[in-house]
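Form 7-S
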Amino acid sequence: MVHSGFAFSLTQLIKTSENAGIETFLFFNSGSVLLNQREKLVKSSMEVESDYTLWLDSDMTFPSTTLLRLLSHDKDIVGCNYKKRSNPQTPVAYREIGNWDSWVSFDEKEDLVKVEGVGMGCILIKTDLFKEINKPFFEFTYNEESWLLASEFFICPKAALFPRM
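Output:
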């Protein structure tokens, strides 16, 4: 299900990006296995030789300038900190994977904060980075306390293995 707020935000983002001279492609993949869907979306992005892949969850709303703002940081991976949908509604950016009290506060004064994990509801990833990371790009696993770790928390540590200038 796609929320109307998301649909409106997405159309405005594409319009703003195209007006700024950024060629955009929109890929959508439906299915029941999130990891397979994400892998297929990366493949689609690589096939059109996209410089970046912007990931947006269909229950998010965001400003039309979101892509421009993320691009302005000139990073391989840059994401937005937002509230989890479930209670307690804590932020989705974590300084340290496994330390669930290390989330980045919304009161953070720095524009960019280095984290080990961030939700994929609004994140920009340089597409070439996927050429350097071994598959699977996304995976679910459990830690010794049986916490389910979503796939987005593994992209940052994997990407950190390939420092680039």
